[in-house]
Amino acid sequence: MSSTSKPTKAAALARVQALIAGTLKHFPSGSFTLGNAAFTTATLVQLLQSLVDAFTSLNATQLSAKDAELTLRGIETHVHPVIRAYERYVLAAFSNATQQLADFGMQPPKARKPMDSQQRAAAAAKARATRKARGTTSKKQKLAVKGNVTGVVVTPVTNPASPPAQPAPVASNVPTPGNVAK
């Protein structure tokens, strides 16, 4: 079997199991010299069976690990919001008490560095440019903006010359004094 790709675990397991079955069927009491080692049918089957057992153990362990990971993810979705809320609570309770925060494995929040005059001027210029680019205006300026409609002819609705037609009476199954069946 000369393949350039590595066989899957399932294919390798099936191949080893087929070797065991073929050996037991065709060489029930044989002896082999493979490489520089001598094997009997029993020792060869035992060696191959150890590989099958290793594959089986690996598959079981991986399935168990997947189950454990799914369990962990499920628990994390419930616990992480509580952790975040508790950390905020601890930070609020011990805002600048470094030792108490260290007991929780936390550090005090860093103080904001105030902007100097150049940074404030740059931020204000950037805000003005952004408002202009987006076309945003204040509430009073928005009220002053009115739309103009051009090229539309509006024709007024006039009363029709003839009176409107009366709707036809709806037939009903309710008997009236004139249509009572005798």
Top keywords for this entry?
182 residues, mainly alpha, two-stranded antiparallel sheet, 5 helices, 4% strand, elongated
Describe the structure.
The protein has 182 residues and is mainly α. The chain has a domain at 9-103. Helices cover 55% and strands 4% of the residues. The protein has helices at 9-26, 41-93, 98-103, 117-134, 139-144; strands at residues 31-34, 37-40. A two-stranded antiparallel ribbon has the order 1-2. Helix 1 packs antiparallel against helix 2 (41-93).
Can you give me a brief rundown of this structure?
The protein is mainly alpha-helical and 182 residues long. Helices cover 55% and strands 4% of the residues. Strands 1-2 form a two-stranded antiparallel ribbon.
Shape: elongated
Proportion of residues in β-strands? under 5%
| Oligomer state of the chains in this structure | single chain
Q: How does the helix and strand content classify structurally? A: mainly alpha
The count of strands amounts to 2
Biggest sheet, strands in spatial order? Answer: 1-2
Largest sheet: number of strands, sense, barrel closure:
2 strands, antiparallel
Count of DSSP helices?
A: 5
Are there runs of 5+ residues with pLDDT below 50, and where? none
Instruction: Please provide the ordered H/E string of secondary-structure elements.
Output: HEEHHHH
> How far apart are the termini?
100 Å
Using the CA coordinates, give the radius of gyration.
43 Å
Helix content: 55-70%
Q: Average pLDDT across residues?
A: 83
